[in-house]
From TrEMBL:
Location of the Catalase core domain: 5-400
EC number: 1.11.1.6
Protein name (Swiss-Prot/TrEMBL): Catalase
PANTHER family with a match to the protein in the record: CATALASE
Family: Belongs to the catalase family.
Organism phylogeny: Bacteria, Pseudomonadati, Pseudomonadota, Gammaproteobacteria, Thiotrichales
Length: 490
């Protein structure tokens, strides 16, 4: 029999009764075991993520099927057949921790590759684009997706008002309101790195790339009615689906592709390759298949792993780098910042976050919870193998840099200014392209979904939105207008 203990390991004699002065008497302050239990209970939560609070996750394997040695020195992308352990966290975006999995909302699709040269994270969504191209509007935009500060209710007026004044969102709004806006669950949707990233090879040549993860389970979606029914019955249906599929050995898979653009071509390409509201059309940059990602191991501890996993697009490895995408640049700051706030300065020491295939060697010391030993590392991650030396350079054979993995220089130019990214921007063509490739059934679902929500907004907001939809495609705008008018007459 395992003996119950306190957190200092002392065996507990009685966990059913508190220590009281007499049978009917009050509890004694010296019942430290009770106090510890209550105090720890009060601290069971960490701040939930402001976005992507509700999540599911699992471990798995990425198998490389095409060597990328022509494009990158990244160690895990060299040898065909090479396998890399991964952790994938799925999420909804706007809801709180206890909210339904069956909502119309983008889904987070965030992969951590535990490579031999450190962890590489691709932190994207189930959509290839985003609502914004400049991060200055991100907090404002998220406020419109969250609860009204006075009523604490979701607010369609705020949401449509913001979009009507920011037509850069039209492409993502079209995806969100389409049939793919409510994936059936996490297994039946694609993932995208969304941002443009850099790869660079040993010749010092740079390539811009976009990541695509295409579901092998097939795309399956829910209608608004189906989603409402599921929400009423089981608000965790996607979590349940993922855990059960993996538990019974039905491992979900995604084929992994890259779009690859040589650095030079970015200068003249018709689409700004660093604009997160745009895709690169496949006919210009076809998908190159590079591997397969499989999820095959459920977590042992939801809180320790899914809640505390700290994914960040700043987790980059030699041969892989950021791009000038403004939204990416902001996320390089804000993701680690969020994790420091949620978890603490040493968040990367937790077993789910620390490298599994290499070990950390640096001169960072101290901070809350310093000293955690990563079970995957032979000598622990903090302090490093040389706990006695906390400065560099030193003459004590401490860890030193490796100049060979320095990224090639990136040419940048221009005067520092607040450039208006809305001026001359084409916010409509790609949203229109998406509308035009949809089947009649998809178009009909799309316009119905939009009209149902937009009709709840005020007249000026509706007027501005209809003008935007018409600019995407006149048929798109016209059909929404007819439906909105019908709904308003009711
Ligand atoms: P293609 O015909 O070559 O590709 C169309 C893409 O659209 C496919 O990847 C398809 O995904 C995806 N798609 C189909 N229906 C929907 C939907 N309801 N919501 C989101 N994606 C959908 O055309 P282009 O490359 O020229 O792109 C045309 C439009 O397709 C774009 O404006 C963009 O909105 C959308 N798209 C483009 C992507 C890209 O990287 N070029 C990626 C995803 C979407 P699947 O094959 O999985 O069915």
């Amino acid at each position: 029999m395992t003996i119950l203990t306190t957190s200092n390991g002392a065996p507990i004699a009685d966990d059913q009764n508190s220590l009281t002065a007499g049978e009917r008497g009050p509890i004694l302050l010296q019942d430290w075991q009770l106090l510890e239990k209550l105090a720890h209970f009060n601290r069971e939560r960490i701040p939930e993520r402001v976005v992507h609070a509700k999540g599911s996750g699992a471990y798995g394997t990425f198998t490389l099927t095409k060597s990328l040695s022509d494009y990158t020195i990244a160690d895990y992308l060299q040898k065909e057949g090479d396998e890399t352990e991964v952790f994938l966290r799925f999420s909804t975006v706007g809801g709180e921790m206890g909210s339904s999995d069956a909502v119309r909302d983008p889904r987070g699709f965030a992969v951590k590759f535990y490579t031999r040269e450190g962890n590489h994270d691709v932190v994207g969504n189930n959509t290839p684009v985003f609502f914004l191209r400049d991060p200055s509007k991100f907090p404002d935009f998220i406020h419109t997706q969250k609860r009204h500060p006075v009523t604490n209710l979701k607010d369609p007026e705020a949401m449509w008002d913001f979009w009507s004044l920011n037509p850069q969102a039209m492409h993502q709004v079209t995806i969100l309101m389409s049939d793919r806006g409510i994936p059936k669950d996490y297994r039946h949707m694609n993932g995208y790195g969304s941002h443009t990233f850099a790869l660079w090879n040993k010749q010092g040549e740079r390539f811009w790339v976009k990541w695509h993860f295409k579901t092998e389970q097939g795309i399956q979606c829910l209608s608004g009615e189906e989603a409402a029914k599921i929400t009423g019955e089981n608000s965790d249906h996607a979590q349940e689906d993922l855990v059960q599929a993996i538990a019974k050995g039905d491992f979900p898979k995604w084929r992994v592709y890259l779009q690859i653009m040589p650095e030079k071509q970015a200068e003249n390409y018709k689409v700004n390759p660093f604009d997160l509201t745009k895709v690169w059309p496949h006919q210009d940059y076809p998908l190159v298949e590079i591997g397969v990602l499989e999820l095959n191991r459920n977590v042992d501890n939801y809180f320790a792993e899914v809640e505390q996993v700290a994914l960040s697009p700043s987790n980059l490895v030699p041969g892989i780098d950021a791009s000038p995408d403004k939204m990416l640049q902001a996320r390089l700051f804000s993701y680690p910042d969020a994790h420091r706030y949620r978890i603490g300065a040493n968040y990367n020491d937790l077993p789910v976050n620390c490298p599994h295939a290499t070990r950390v060697e640096n001169y960072q010391r101290g901070g809350a919870m310093a000293g955690t030993r990563c079970p995957y590392s032979s000598q622990g991650t903090v302090p490093s193998g040389r706990a006695d030396i906390n400065y560099g350079p030193n003459s004590k054979n401490g860890p030193a840099e490796n100049a060979a993995i320095k990224a090639p220089p990136l040419k940048i130019s221009g005067d520092a200014d607040y450039y208006d990214h809305r001026e001359g921007a084409d916010d409509y063509s790609q949203a229109g392209n998406l509308y035009r490739i949809m089947s009649e059934e998809q178009k009909s679902q799309l316009v119905n979904n939009i009209a149902g929500s937009l009709s709840l907004a005020s007249e000026p907001v509706i007027g501005r939105m209809l003008a935007h939809f018409r600019k995407c495609d006149s048929d798109y705008g016209q059909r929404i207008e007819i439906l909105v008018n019908q709904l308003k007459e009711k």
